[in-house]
Amino acid sequence: MNVPTPVITIPRCTRCAAKLSYEGRPCHLCIAPAGFRIAKGFARDIKGPQRQRDIKLPKFAQPIAVRGKKAVMPRGERMIATLRLVGRWTWNSIGIAAGVHLLAVILALFLRAEIESVIARVSKVAIEDKVAVAATPAPEPEELEAPFLNPEDDELIMPDKLDDTVIDTGSPEYEAPPDERIYAPEPQVAPPRPAPPNAFPARLPKQPNGLGGGQPEPVKRPPTGSGLFVNRNGDSRAGAIKRYGGGDDTEEAVNLGLEYLARQQGSDGSWDPNKGFEVPPDWGSRNNGYRGAITALCTLPFLAAGNSPDEGRYKSNVRRALNWLMNRQKSDGYISYAISGDMYTHCVATLALCEAYGMTRDEEIGKSAERAVRYLERTQGNRGGWDYQGYITASTPTGGTERNDGSISGWAILAFKSAKSVGIKVNERTWTQMAELYDRLSLNSGETYYADAPYGRLSGTRKGVGMVGVGLTSRVILDDDRFEARNAAAEELLLHKLPTWDAFHEPTYDSTAPNFNTFYGLYYCTLGMFLKNGGEGYAWSQWNEAMKKTLLPQQVKRGSRKGSWEPVDTWIGPIMGDLYSTACSVLCLEVYYRYNPMHRADSAVAPVASDSPAPDKPAPRVNPEPREDTDSPADRSRALRALVNAKGSGAVADLIKALNDEASSVRSTALSELGKLKAKDAAPAVSNMLAQPGNDSLRFTIVDTLGRLGDRSVYPALVKLLGDSDESIQQAARNALGKLSGGKDFGVNKNAWRDWFERNP
C-alpha cells in the first residue's frame, strides 16, 4: 500500500497570498488595510493602520488611486504626528513624576507619627546620657615675685642729661607706639541752618465748606485730602455713598471700569486713543493727537476713587500717568501732546495735577500744577474764556475775532476751583471774568450757548442737553446765588430730559448740528445736578436713578473689554472710543464721593498779578439781563438762609411771606427751607402756589416741598396731579404721596390713594 507523501503547505493569506508564519495568524500586510484620500499627490485622511515605508500592498489590495505607488503621509502631517508622540511621552513622564512625589508625600504623612516618636526617644536618651562633670578645683595662684630692680633704675636723671630732641610726627624718623592711634582734630563747623520753607505750604479752607471753602489757609499737618476731597477714602466714602444715592452696584461698576482703564494704560503711563476701538478707525495713527486729552481724562477716575501716587490699589497707574503729563509740560507751564494749542488737554491735565497735589502735597506735583494754573491765567481771553488755542501763543482761528468756548472754559473752571481748594492762589480778575462769560452764555430758559462767536462755519449759538450740564456746573461753582434763577431753570430742563441709553444713539448729521446727548454731557449734567442739590432732594434723586438705569445695565461684563462702556454716542464716541465713554461713565458713578457737595459763593479770591491784558471795554452780552446792585434776588435768598440759620422754625412766617416774592429764585429758596424745617403750617400756602401761573417753573419744587412738609391734608392736590399731562410731574406727585403715606405706592391709581388717606387722615 502506497502511503501518500505528506505535502507541506506554506500558509498564505487567502487575500494577498502573503506568507504567514503559521496558519490563523492575521496577515501583516492586508489586515484592516488603510484607506486613503489622495490630494495633490499625497495620501491624506489615512484611516486604519499605516504601512511601513518599505512595504507595499499587492496591487490587488491597493486602492486604485495609489496602486503601484508608495503611500506616505505628507511631511507636515508626519511632523504633527511626531510632536503628538513627544507630547504623550512628556505628559507620561510628568504624570509618573507627579505620582511618585504624591506617593512620597502620602508615605510621609502616614509615617509622620512614627518619625516624631523616634525623634522624641532619641532626644530623651541624649538628655539622660548627660552626666554632670565634677567640679575641677581652681589652680593655686603662683607666688608673685618682686621685679628685679637695677640699682641704677632709681637714680635721678639730671635735666642736662635729658635728650630734648623732638621728632615731628611728619618726620620719616618718627615711629608711633604700637598701640597709639592718631586722631585728626574735629573740624569746627557751623550749626546746621534751618531748612527753607516749603514753597507750597499745605492749605485748607477756612471752614469745611467743600467746593466753596474760601481761599485756604496754611496748616501744619494736612490730612490726605482737603475739604474738597475728604469723601474719597475710608468711612467718609462709605457714608457718602449711602447718603447720596450710591450702592454696591455702583461701586462694582466703578471697580470694573478702573480695572479696564488700568489694563489699557501704556507702559509709559499714557493711554492710546486707538485702544478704545475694537477695530481702530481709518484716521487712527500711532501718535494720535488725542493721546494727551484722553490720558488726562482717564487719570481723573483713579484720583476720584482715592488713588494717589502714594496710596491706593492703582497708585502705580496714577504715578505713571502724572509723570507722563508733567513730562509734556513746557517751561511756560503749557501741557500738550502733538496738537499745538490744544487747550482741552491743558485744562483737563491741570485739573488732574491740582487734585493729585491736594491728595498728596507732593512738592513736585504742586509746582507743576501752579505753573499750569498760571498758564491758564495768562491765556484767558479778554472776554473771560478760552478757545482751542491759548490767546497768548496763537492768533484766533476766526480771523481776528476772539472766541470763548463754553465747553473748554468749563474744564478751566473745574481746574481753578480745585487749585483754590488746595492752596494755589487764583487771580481775582480771572474768576470775575469767568462769571461774566457764563452770564453772557446762559439763557433764562436754563440753556447755555456753546460759544460766544462762531468757529468757521460753525455757529456759536449751538445748544443741547450736554451744554445745559456744562453751564449748570460752571454757574454753581462760580456763583450759585447770582445764577440761582437760571440754575433752577436748567434743573427743570434736565428733569424733562432724563438720561436714557437710547438717547446716545440719536444721529449727528454734521458739525453744524451736533448731538449733545453724549457721555461727556452726561458727566457734566450729573455733576451739576449733584452740586446744585447737595446730593439730596427730589431733583437729584430723579436724575440719579435715571443715570444709574442708563449706565449700570450697559457695562460690558465679559471678554477683553470687560468693565468698559461701548462709545455709542454719535458725536464724540466715534472719535475718542471706549476709553472716553468708560472714563466719563466711571466719573458719573463716583459723583457721590468725588467732591464734598457743600458749597457756597466764594468771593475771597486772592489777587495775584497777571500778564493778561485788561479788557478794553465790556463785550456785548449774548443774553443781556438787568441786575440790581442792591436788594437783588440773590441778596434776599442769602438773607432767608441766614434767618433760618439764626432762628430755625421761628423763621417760618418770613418764609411763607417770601413765597409771594417777585423773583422765582427767592420763592424757590423759601420752598426749600420750609421743606427742611418740615413746617406743616406752610402747607396751605405752598399748595395754593400750584394754581398761580407765575409758579409754572417751580412745579417740581412745590410738589417735592408738599411731600416733605408732612401735612397729609394736602393729598387732594397731589392726587389731582397724578393725571397731569407731564409724566415727570406725575412721578413727582407719586413720590410726594409716598412720603406722606410713609412709603406706600399705589402708582397713579387715584382711587387707591384717596381711599388710603381717607382711612389714615
Write the layout of secondary structure elements.
Elements: E1 35-39, E2 42-47, H1 75-129, E3 203-204, E4 217-218, H2 234-244, H3 248-264, H4 291-304, H5 315-327, H6 343-360, H7 363-378, H8 406-421, H9 428-441, H10 465-479, H11 484-496, H12 519-533, H13 537-551, H14 573-589, H15 591-594, H16 633-647, H17 652-658, H18 664-677, H19 683-688, H20 699-709, H21 715-721, H22 727-740, H23 750-759
Antiparallel strand pairs: 1-2, 3-4
Helix pairs in contact: 3-14, 4-5, 4-6, 4-14, 6-7, 6-8, 7-8, 8-9, 8-10, 9-10, 10-11, 10-12, 12-13, 12-14, 16-18, 17-18, 18-20, 20-22, 21-22, 21-23
Description:
With 761 residues, the protein is an all-alpha fold. Among the domains are: 230-594, Glycosyltransferase (Alpha/alpha barrel), CATH 1.50.10.20; 637-759, Leucine-rich Repeat Variant (Alpha Horseshoe). Helix content is 44%, strand content 2%. It has 23 helices and four strands. The chain has a two-stranded antiparallel ribbon with strand order 1-2. Strand 1 (35-39) and strand 2 (42-47) form a beta hairpin. The chain is extended and about 140 Å long. The N and C termini lie far apart (137 Å). Residues 49-55, 146-159, 166-172, 176-226, 394-399 and 599-630 have low confidence and may be disordered.
What would you say the CATH architecture of one domain is? Alpha/alpha barrel
Give the oligomeric state: single chain
Task: Tell me roughly what share of residues is in helical segments.
Answer: 40-55%
The biggest beta sheet, please?
Answer: 2 strands, antiparallel
Radius of gyration: 44 Å
Strand-residue fraction? under 5%
CATH class of one domain: Mainly Alpha
Please give the order of strands in the largest beta sheet: 1-2
- Give the distance, in angstroms, between the N- and C-terminal Cα atoms: 137 Å
